[in-house]
Amino acid sequence: MSDAPLLLALDQGTTSTRAIAFDADGRPAVSARRELPQTYPGPGRVEHDPGRIRDDAIAVCREALERAEASGGRVAAIGITNQRETTLLWERATGRPLHPAIVWQDRRTAPACDALREQGAEPLVRRKTGLLLDPYFSATKLAWLLEHVEGAREAAGRGELAFGTVDSWLVWHLTGGRVHATDATNASRTLLFDIHEQRWDEELLETFGIPAAVLPDVRDSSGFFGETDPALFGRPVPIGGVAGDQQAATFGQAAFRAGEAKCTYGTGAFLLLITGGQPVVSRSRLLTTVAWRLGGEVTYALEGSIFSAGSAVGWLREGLGILEAPEASETLAAAARAGSEVVLVPAFTGLGAPYWDPDARGALLGVGRDTGPAEIARAALDAVAFQTGDLLEAMQTDTDVVPSVLRVDGGLSRNNLGMQMVADLVGMPVERPQVTETTALGAAYLAGLHAGVYSGLEAIGTHWRRDRRWEPSIDAEERQGRVRRWKDAVARVLTR
Ligand code: ADP
């Protein structure tokens, strides 16, 4: 297999930086990984060291590339996928970051968002960006940096500073400081980008007090982003694709057409439903986002996020001490008494879509004298399924584009019982692919599309292979009864 084309995905996540080389069939060949520490410099503050992100990214790419090519393949292109919204600001002349990266989870700009909301900015933001006015997104983080780093606003005005999400930071450094660019998916998470017009928006820039001189060039998600600095990997390698992590995962699941959907179950869970060439504005506080842009054509998605999915299982282990390992939740939950009415609302850090209640806290209801660890474990997996159902229901009120199957990935998707419960409680078949590294795979596919390894989406779709499928196994009446119990429980924890 000499010179077989390989695609190197660089997956820069919140807790780790990984590089995976995939073969043209979408099978992982080699991978390298470094843990990424987070720092918590104050209440609600979460930061990363930009230098560490850059160095780890270069190191894992080099390691994976060398190992992959040692066995006869050749990396045709690199694709980058990244934790979204995390905000960086650096000096153009030197590449020096002016401050630690402000991570998507950071809430320091909540008061700034409140103030903008009081000034009536939310309808504008919602109309142009498809997002909500929330500290989660980049704009208020960037404004905070310009405000709090000494001299930053003046330097930015003089065109000396560059803003970027993690993808831009990596493209900048991988190309030796020659390219300042992002892709449309990452731009669509900043609150500064008009997703309809596909350009940075002057009115939004003014609203958030951002000078246009700091902004990266916005490009298609698959295309030429530059060549890596030859000093890094022994030769220049083209960067052929960039996308935010959830969009890349959707691409990696080959969920390309309107009505196709995927849910990634990790600590939290992210459900994206492709709506096609037209953005759908949500009435249920879901986000409208760019799924990818290819050859200038935008595909849009509706996105809903659950804050606690795998973390509910984590709580069984760390909080309650009733599990040895997350996998053990499956056997424990399977031993639950039939007809148990225990409901867990895992609002540990508030509730995400469609409730958006940051102040809600969790509850365990329906506890009887015969409730034990098994019933609670079952309720934790049920909660993952119920929340998935809430998101799909919200999507169905927003659009008549209804999925016929839900594709799943992420750590918790390995839980077979949990996935059966999703199928049961959402009333829809659930499918898990053989390759569950869908985020990295999506970035590899985007790069491969640019490098000519794939002729188009159809060719990529042929590489999606099913590992397992679950059909709903309960009737509508039982489903409705259980969903009603869940909704009653949620109603008791909501604060607004
Ligand atoms: P992240 O990318 O958010 O760190 P992962 O995709 O690695 O998440 O998934 C890890 C999460 O999934 C953890 O919260 C863990 O508790 C949960 N998890 C992993 N395997 C299982 C399993 N077999 N059953 C239930 N939960 C699981």
Structure description:
- The chain is α+β, with helices and mostly antiparallel strands and 496 residues long.
- The chain has 2 domains: 6-244, Nucleotidyltransferase, domain 5 (2-Layer Sandwich); 254-496, 2-Layer Sandwich (Nucleotidyltransferase, domain 5), CATH 3.30.420.
- The protein is built from 17 helices and 23 strands.
- The chain has helices spanning 50-70, 110-118, 122-129, 138-148, 152-157, 166-174, 184-187, 202-208, 230-233, 245-252, 310-319, 329-334, 373-398, 416-426, 438-451, 457-461, 476-493, and strands spanning 4-12, 16-23, 28-35, 39-42, 45-48, 73-82, 88-91, 101-102, 161-164, 181-183, 193-194, 199-200, 217-219, 239-244, 261-265, 269-276, 287-294, 297-306, 343-345, 363-365, 406-409, 430-433, 466-470.
- The protein has a 7-stranded mixed beta sheet, with helices on both faces. Strands 3-2-1-6-14 form a 5-stranded mixed beta sheet, with helices on both faces.
- Strand 4 (39-42) and strand 5 form a beta hairpin.
- Helix 10 (245-252) packs across helix 15 and helix 11 (310-319) packs antiparallel against helix 13.
- The model has no long low-confidence stretch (mean pLDDT 95).
- The structure holds adenosine-5'-diphosphate (ADP).
Features:
496 residues; alpha+beta; Nucleotidyltransferase, domain 5; 2 domains; 17 helices; 23 strands; 36% helix; binds adenosine-5'-diphosphate
